[in-house]
């Protein structure tokens, strides 16, 4: 979309999602003050909107999002391993599906962690992985753009109006997926009581990191490569023809950071699917690590990861599908439902700032 419109769209989507998440946090606090604490998005939506079909709509959309992200994470993690393997053994016999199987085994082992709360240190590590990857790749892009053999920078847009329109819609879809969450109530439920007001502080910290990582990588990548920049900046730094535009150690470390980050993402988004599956299989009368609950959890979670890995291996272009499916799921959960629930639950005055912004 170019410099101006691209950065404006990045800022606008960030602002809108921040505001809608703030509204959802207000709805959660309002319901908890009334004696109805909700730890799941689907139950909150059904309570506020008072309709059974909303519950199943949210379940369906959440399941689609979480499965899509898990499949995409396994696939891209497998690609990362393949990149590392190809650089060490260019003529090696291993294929992409071998690396997908390796990722699936590791993910199945870590997926036995029983709850969102048990992932708190993995989430903290994910924060540092994001910062580290952004600094490394952005620095590499700036260095590549200053080289004497740097690629020609072309910032012009497509002369075709239809192609420009398609690119704009595709970019907005990607941004909706990037800033989408879909599991905010489940995350807010992990805050120590009383949670009122804490989620706003968490959102501020989250978006501070998001602005740093997204703006730095977007600006440096587009400045260095222009409209020829790849969606994965590492691919631009490792062109098919000619030498790499970044040191080998930096590219290798960046790939490792991406690999670890993808495992963390898959673990977080899989938790909602696990909770849905285990709602009937678990017995609260027994301990979380008792044989009665451990065996079903092991079977269900391993089976879920295996199914996602099978789809990733069968559809290596699934990442392109997620780029379309993601907005279909994230837009209703992150852009529409929070606003509707806020207007129904808190009923702000017609002339209030919140009412006007919601409209």
Descriptive overview:
By secondary structure, the protein is mostly helical. It has helices at 2-33, 41-49, 52-88, 96-110, 120-146, 161-179, 184-188, 198-225, 233-237, 248-281, 291-314, 318-345, 353-358. 75% of the residues lie in helices and 0% in strands.
Layout: helices, strands, pairs:
Layout (H helix, E strand, L loop, with lengths): L1 H32 L7 H9 L2 H37 L7 H15 L9 H27 L14 H19 L4 H5 L9 H28 L7 H5 L10 H34 L9 H24 L3 H28 L7 H6 L1
What is the alpha-carbon Rg in Å?
22 Å
Order of helices and strands: HHHHHHHHHHHHH
What share of residues are in beta strands? under 5%
What level of helicity do the residues show? over 70%
Mean pLDDT, to the nearest integer, reads 79
Count of beta strands: 0
Through-space gap between termini: 27 Å
The number of distinct helices, counting runs of at least 4 residues, comes to 13
Low-confidence parts: none
What distinguishing features does this structure have?
13 helices; mainly alpha; 0% strand; 75% helix; single chain; 359 residues
Write a concise synopsis of the structure shown.
This protein is mainly α and 359 residues long. The protein has helices at residues 2-33, 41-49, 52-88, 96-110, 120-146, 161-179, 184-188, 198-225, 233-237, 248-281, 291-314, 318-345, 353-358.
